[in-house]
Structure formats: C-alpha cells, structure tokens
Amino acid sequence: MSSPFPHLLPSSPLSPSLPLLFLPSKTLSPRHRRRSAVTAALQWNRKPQFAGETPRVVVVTSGKGGVGKTTTTANVGLSLARFGFSVVAIDADAGLRNLDLLLGLENRVNYTAVDVLNGDCRLDQALVRDRRCPSLELLCISKPRSKLPLGFGSKALTWVVDALRSRPAGPPHFVLIDCPAGIDAGFITAIAPANEAVLVTTPDITALRDADRVTGLLECDGIRDIKMIVNRVRTDLIRGEDMMSVLDVQEMLGLALLGVIPEDSEVIKSTNRGYPLVLNKPPTMAGLAFEQAAWRLVEQDTMTAVMVEEEPKKKGFFSFFGG
Amino acid sequence: MAISGDLKVFVGTFASHRPPKPPVPVSKIRFGRVLKGASDLRIVQKWLQAESPAGSTVKHSQVCHGMGGNKLSPTVNQDAEGFLLNVVNMNFFDRLSLAWRILFPTAKERNNSNASIAKQRLKMILFSDRCDISDEAKQKIVGNVIEALSEFVEIDSQDKVQLNISTDTDLGTIYSVTVPVRRVRPGYQDSEEDYSGKISNIEYKDTGETSGTVDVTFDFFLPNKK
C-alpha cells in the first residue's frame, strides 16, 4: 500500500496549465481536461479505509519512558487527521504535560478535562483545535499550575471518553490516549477506556523488558488487540550486529508490527519548533514511516519485518584454511 | 595464534597527491564481531603511506582485535601497530588463514555479536519475568507433588523437598522439584522373584502363516545363583 503524497497534488486543480505528467494518460478534449484533473487529483488523494467501530479508542503506551510515546501520538494523530478522520488526542498524564508542546499548541490550552469534570467549562471549550489541521483536537488533563493533587482516576477518563462519544458534533473517528510512563496509577487510568493498544518500544533490551511487562498487564486488563511500533531504529547498527533487529524484537515480544520508525534527528528539531514531523515538506524518513503506521492503524493492518542483515557467507572451496 | 576478538577493518584506497586523479571512495570491510569496549574505529590517515612512483593506490588500514579468548586489547592504536608487526613476522600460510578467518568469520564468532548477546539476555530475562510465580503457589506445587509421589515412594523428609526455577536456553523456564526418597513402597517394588520364569521381549521374525514355520526370539530370566 502506498501512502498518499500530498505534495504531488497540483495547487489549484482547475487551472489549465497543469503538469500533464501527473495525470493518467487519457486522450481527452481540452474541455474535459479540467474535470479529469479534479478526478485525477481525487485518485491520488487515496484515503485508507476505516476498519472497526467508531470511535476507535487507542492507547499509546510503552512502560519505559522516553521511547517516543508522545511523539508517536502526535505524529500518528496528525497523520490520521490529514487522511480526513476526526481525531481527539488526550494527554492522559495527570502530572506532566507534553503532548501540547509537541503539537505546538501549548499557548492555546485554557481549559483541561479537570475543569470539565468540575463543571467550570464545556467539553468543546476544553478541546483545542489545531489550525493547521482542523480535524485534530487536543485534550489535556493536567493543570501544571495547580498545587492540589488531582485525583483523576479511570472512572473520570472513561467518563470523558463517553462524553466524546456522545457529543452533539458526533463521535470522533479516533481517540488517541497518550499514556504516562510507568505501570502505576497513571497507566491504569489511561488504559481503562481503551479497546486497543499501540505499544511503542525501541530495540534495546531495557525497553523490551518493560514492553513485555506492559503487554502482560494490558492483557490482564482485557485489551487483546496490541500492536507494536518499533521506534528509533538504526539500520546501520543492525547491519553491524550491534542492535537487535526488528525481526528479533518481533520474535521476542510476539506482537503484530504496526510500524518501524528510523532514528531521525528531525524529531528533535520538530519538537523544538512545535511543528510535528509529519507536516514537513519534503517528508522525512521518520515522517513517512509515521504516515504508513497511521495508514495501517486505520485499516487494522500489520506489517512484517524485513531482514536487514546480510546472509552469512557460505563456506566455500578453501574452507580447509581455517575457521 | 588465534584471532578471536572483534575485528573491524577499514580498507581505504587513497589517491596520490596529484590533483587530476579523482579520489577513490573509501570502502569499508566489516567482519567478525564487535569488540567489547573498543567498538569505534577511526581511519588513521597517516598510517602506511607508501610512496610509489605510480602513486595510484595507497592502502590505509587500521585493525583492532583481541588476542586469545576474551582478553580485551588496551587501546586501538597500539594494537594496530602490534598486530601489523605480528602479521609481518608470520609465514605465508598463517597470514593466509588469518586473512580467511578475517574475511569469513565462523559461526561462533558471529554469535558473539552485541545483537546476539542482547538477544540471549533478553530471552533469559523474559522467561524469568514471565514465569514469576508467587510463594503461595510454590508451596502448593510442592504439597501436590509430595502427595502424588507418596503413593509410590516413601519420602525421606517433607522439609527437604525443594522447588527450583531455572532457565535453559533451549527449553525455556524449567521447574524442578527435588525429592529425597527413602524407599519404594512395597506394592511397586521391582523384585527379582517376579521375574523368574518370566518370558519377555518376544519378537516374531516369522509368524508362520505363509511358510509354515515360526521364528521367535525371546528373553528368559534366570536369577543368579547366590
């Protein structure tokens, strides 16, 4: 499946001076060329097919901190919004807030879910809509300036998700919950309303051990649909046999693979700017990988890992020399 | 002399100092496993600069290795010089076999790469984490095993029965219960008197249906006369 390339779209589909090599080759009179340009543009702008029931509540978790949960939530959420689905991203970390920084929306968060629960504001006031991509909305839970303990539990989060489901504007297609690190109360809160999980891990041994533990906890909680995204993959180290390959990771954890994201310095740059990676033109490697992972998430598809290492050399005629 | 360390060789072909010749790209040959602790190598450009009248190619190479088992070499640069001095003193066939082993590492050398070490460790850790059993369950297992075995054997002392959990590379998690046994219960004992006169291990080589003759081998037990 190829992901759409929006930068190939002509800027105004109705202008007669279209680059004809982007259109399928059809012999048409100039009068019909405008209409075929629009249909051709729509063909290039393929959308993934939505699978599953609306809304799909997905929790992005990992266990170990710092493997890229918030980055994944932001980029996958934005990719989903660009495909045309309505997405609500919830930052379920009740103490430390990060998802708004990654999306560049930190100045616009006025109300949080705590205010909604207290009755200080309506739900749609707490949802921050992204101006770059209007189908994405952000909901934060924590109020960093509040000194009182928040006491935001799983019932509260479930209530919020149900409220989103039954809001007058219609339920969103996707609800992405960014889980805090660890396996304590914050984690339990975040996985409570979810039906599926995306486990983000890196190919190193510490993250994999924690990911395995988290898998056990998720299955105990009743979430069976767990897919994996392997982040920060360095193919040069894998080829040099210094890092475990994605095939090894899949074998160890036994989870379906949603995506493989290469290590990209663009991640840091885009976090600093507040401009998510997938919006970059031209798209970077990590951005493309995120888009493909989002595509697979929509269609409930998985990928198979590819062997990066070379085949070991077969022993030949001169094997009597040693080895 | 056995090369059993991690070997990374950068073989660079360097053009001479004549500007019109285009620079030859540096090719990197990687082989063997990665040395623990000295895994990044740098090309030493001033090594082995051989001036030849044609001046076309000059080989720059830097090698780091560990000699003999798991001993780590002190520094990368010192070893490069030492290694090459040793290589120069070897005879032709030794050098040839060294080169062969460098270029085509054995399966054992490949298995000690960082990735495979990590994979082994992770396997062990995952197995032991996944089979984390509570103490209460351990006591129950021991109790059930004692009860099941008591029907057949007499157990020496119930306190000495132990449950051990260990991991094995092939099988995974192994639960072993050690039970000291005093003797087998009378009903299940394997006694000699039962065997005298007993025919066992009967094998029919020819049952006689077609040929009319029967060919049979069997074992007949005779006790030793004491």
Automatic annotation (TrEMBL), chain A:
<dbReference type="GO" id="GO:0009898">
    <property type="term" value="C:cytoplasmic side of plasma membrane"/>
</dbReference>
<dbReference type="GO" id="GO:0005524">
    <property type="term" value="F:ATP binding"/>
</dbReference>
<protein>
    <recommendedName>
        <fullName>CobQ/CobB/MinD/ParA nucleotide binding domain-containing protein</fullName>
    </recommendedName>
</protein>
<dbReference type="GO" id="GO:0005829">
    <property type="term" value="C:cytosol"/>
</dbReference>
<dbReference type="Pfam" id="PF01656">
    <property type="entry name" value="CbiA"/>
</dbReference>
<dbReference type="InterPro" id="IPR010223">
    <property type="entry name" value="MinD"/>
</dbReference>
<dbReference type="GO" id="GO:0051782">
    <property type="term" value="P:negative regulation of cell division"/>
</dbReference>
<keyword id="KW-0067">ATP-binding</keyword>
<dbReference type="GO" id="GO:0016887">
    <property type="term" value="F:ATP hydrolysis activity"/>
</dbReference>
<feature type="domain" description="CobQ/CobB/MinD/ParA nucleotide binding">
    <location>
        <begin position="58"/>
        <end position="276"/>
    </location>
</feature>
<dbReference type="InterPro" id="IPR027417">
    <property type="entry name" value="P-loop_NTPase"/>
</dbReference>
<dbReference type="InterPro" id="IPR050625">
    <property type="entry name" value="ParA/MinD_ATPase"/>
</dbReference>
<keyword id="KW-0547">Nucleotide-binding</keyword>
<dbReference type="InterPro" id="IPR002586">
    <property type="entry name" value="CobQ/CobB/MinD/ParA_Nub-bd_dom"/>
</dbReference>
<comment type="similarity">
    <text>Belongs to the ParA family. MinD subfamily.</text>
</comment>
TrEMBL record, chain B:
<dbReference type="InterPro" id="IPR005527">
    <property type="entry name" value="MinE"/>
</dbReference>
<dbReference type="InterPro" id="IPR036707">
    <property type="entry name" value="MinE_sf"/>
</dbReference>
<protein>
    <recommendedName>
        <fullName>Cell division topological specificity factor MinE</fullName>
    </recommendedName>
</protein>
<dbReference type="Pfam" id="PF03776">
    <property type="entry name" value="MinE"/>
</dbReference>
<dbReference type="GO" id="GO:0051301">
    <property type="term" value="P:cell division"/>
</dbReference>
<dbReference type="GO" id="GO:0010020">
    <property type="term" value="P:chloroplast fission"/>
</dbReference>
<comment type="similarity">
    <text>Belongs to the MinE family.</text>
</comment>
